[in-house]
Structure formats: C-alpha cells, structure tokens
C-alpha cells in the first residue's frame, strides 16, 4: 500500500528544515479518507501509532458520520477536500501521503503540495479542523444553522482552518523565491489562477449563485496563496485570526451570518 517516495533536492531540503523525521509515502490506492485496513498498514512502515480522539460534546447532534468517525479512537487519516496529499502525526514518525490521483500532474505542482504538507506538519498544529475548533465547533455550527446544513458547516470549518494554516505558512512560501524558486513559482501560480474566480465571488454569493461553503473554500485558498479575499472573508486575512484562532473564527461567523440574515 505504501512505498517511500524519492524526493527532489528541494523537497528534501524543506523536509530537513520543517519536518526532519517525516516519511513521505506514495500510496498504491486513491482515497478521500484512508480505509481502516489500509490505515492500519501504516503501522508496518512507522514505529508507533498514537491515535487521537475527541469528546462527544464537541460534535453537534447532526454532525456528519465522517466527523463522528474522526472524533472516535479509530485511526482516521485524510478527509474529503484534502486533495492529492494528506498528512498525519498520529504515527511516529509523522507521514505525508501522496495519492495516485496526482499521477500526470506537473512535477512542480506535486512538489509544492508535498512541500506544503511538510511545512504544515512542522507547525505542530492540529491536522484536522476538529482539533482546531474543539469545543467551539458547536458554536460555529449554531452560527450558520439557518443557512448551512451539517455538510456545508463541515466545508466551512475546513476552509476556515485552511485559511488559519495559511496565515502561518504563506511567509514561508514567499521566502522560497530565493532558495526554492520552482516551489515559489508553483505557490504563486496557484494564487494567480484563483484571481478570476475571486473577482465576482461576493456578487455570486449575494445572488445565491455560489454556496457559502464553496465561496469560503475559494476565499480561504486565496489567503493561503497571498491573494486578497473578497467580502466577507477579508476579515479573516488578519493578524488577529492568526493569534486568536478558533475564537476569532467563530466570532467572525456569528457576525457574518447575522448580517446575511
């Protein structure tokens, strides 16, 4: 199921700087959330498993089943929306998993995704938004309950956490212009590709042409890539969010949905 990936010199340097103990593994099968049997195979290529679980009271009563599974003591790696690369620190050493869906993608793009994951591993932040929001997750769900179903709330939470991580990583990416120019170009190019989709996003959201969760994904990706997010997401691109985290995100959601209602 897993084989150690050959790393380019740039990726090896990023790993040495940010997550020197991490394993980067190619996966034989694609996945959104790694099936339990395959997740247990990680024990064969790592030294130990340190499974995380979360209290039931952190979950609203209508939380999606996947979120309940993630909160349990079952080894759960990856989540919908993770894209072609996932990572976990529930193993010792931590692992970065590269999925087969990336086959045929430009090498520079794949290298950036792996480098991004290694930087995130090195942040020592939660690997999933549930660990980030913690006991505030029901408050986030309550803030948007008149507009969002549980799946859209999940989507919003994932986007908000993506933005939070981006506030911590984008300075690293911006500094790659000198040491790792190919990785820098891939990061910058991804941001530039977002610009046409961001231009009319506020209008599309107001007209109901784009769902709030989908809009949040685009806007929060913009934050990660150093682009200016449209209203009402600009308030997330702040030092206050970087400092106060989940409390700030919940307060932003409460104010935002109050205005929309």
- Count, helices: 12
Order of helices and strands: EHEHEHEEEHHHHHHHHH
Strand content: 5-15%
- Report the sheet with the most strands, covering strand number, pairing sense and barrel closure: 4 strands, mixed
Taking all residues together, what is the mean pLDDT? Answer: 93
**The number of domains:** 2
Count the beta strands: 6
Oligomerization state: single chain
pLDDT below 50 for ≥5 consecutive residues: which ranges? none
Kindly name the structural category: alpha+beta
* Radius of gyration from the alpha-carbon trace, in angstroms: 18 Å
- The shape, in one word, is globular
What level of helicity do the residues show? 40-55%
Strand order of the largest sheet: 1-2-6-4
The span between the termini is 48 Å
Notable features of this structure?
261 residues, alpha+beta, 2 domains, four-stranded mixed beta sheet, two-stranded antiparallel sheet, 12 helices, 6 strands, DUF7089
Write the layout of secondary structure elements.
Elements: E1 2-4, H1 9-18, E2 23-27, H2 36-40, E3 48-49, H3 65-71, E4 85-88, E5 91-92, E6 95-98, H4 107-122, H5 129-133, H6 137-143, H7 150-179, H8 181-198, H9 201-206, H10 212-224, H11 239-244, H12 246-260
Parallel strand pairs: 2-6
Antiparallel strand pairs: 1-2, 3-5, 4-6
Pfam families: DUF7089 (PF23363)
InterPro entries: DUF7089
């Amino acid at each position: 199921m897993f084989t150690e990936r050959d790393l380019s010199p740039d990726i090896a340097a990023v790993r040495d700087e940010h997550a020197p103990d991490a394993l980067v593994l190619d996966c034989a099968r694609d996945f959104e959330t790694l099936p339990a049997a395959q997740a247990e195979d990680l024990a064969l290529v790592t030294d130990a498993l340190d499974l995380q679980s979360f209290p039931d009271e952190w979950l609203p009563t209508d939380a999606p089943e996947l979120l309940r599974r993630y909160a349990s003591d079952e080894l759960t790696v990856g989540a919908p929306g993770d894209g072609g690369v996932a990572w976990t620190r529930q193993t010792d050493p931590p692992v970065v998993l590269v999925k087969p869906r990336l086959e045929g993608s430009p090498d520079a793009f794949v290298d950036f995704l792996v480098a991004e994951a290694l930087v995130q591993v090195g942040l020592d932040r939660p690997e999933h938004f549930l660990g980030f929001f913690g006991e505030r997750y029901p408050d986030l769900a309550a803030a948007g309950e008149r507009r969002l179903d549980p799946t859209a709330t999940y989507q919003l939470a994932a986007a908000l956490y993506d933005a939070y991580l981006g506030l911590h990583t984008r300075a690293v990416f911006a500094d790659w212009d000198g040491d790792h120019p190919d990785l820098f170009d891939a990061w910058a190019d991804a941001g530039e590709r977002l610009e046409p989709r961001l231009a009319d996003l506020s209008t599309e959201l107001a007209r109901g042409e784009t769902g709030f969760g989908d809009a949040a994904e685009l806007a929060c990706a913009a934050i990660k890539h150093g682009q200016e997010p449209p209203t009402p997401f600009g308030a997330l691109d702040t030092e206050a969010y970087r400092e106060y985290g989940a409390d700030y995100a919940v307060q932003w959601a409460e104010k935002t949905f109050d205005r929309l209602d």
